[in-house]
User: Fold tRNA(Arg) A34 adenosine deaminase TadA from Nonomuraea soli.
Amino acid sequence: MITAADEKLLRRAIDIAAQAVTLGDAPYGSLLAGPDGEILIEAHNTVRRDNDIAAHPELKLARWAARELDERTAARTTMYTSCQPCGMCIGGIVRSGLGRVVYALATEQLVALNPGSVWPTVEQYGPALFEEARVPIDTYYRS
Assistant:
């Protein structure tokens, strides 16, 4: 469920995306709001500027949350973002412990607006060599 308070913070994320364009960066913006609704931190996409494929605002904020928020606070913190997080970012969000994401554009809507935003796939092969691969895992988690 998206509330009026959510919409206000989501509009701020869209404003961050618009500001990114004026700086020559890609049009994606995000923010984290703590349990009381106060904005904790904001970021925009700096992939091109930083020459860093991981410089999505969602991933930058998830990494910040993992470093700076305790587990309980993170679980009650919401990310507001101008577009639905990609697979890379959602993985970081889950690992950071953030409790909720509210986004403006769905991936399908973004692709309709910009067909060039479709990500190619990569072939994957496996699993293989289970007995060998399990040794470092068993060593780490059983010690």
Remarks:
- The chain has a mean pLDDT of 97.
- The first strand starts at residue 29 and ends at 33.
- DSSP finds seven helices and four strands in the chain.
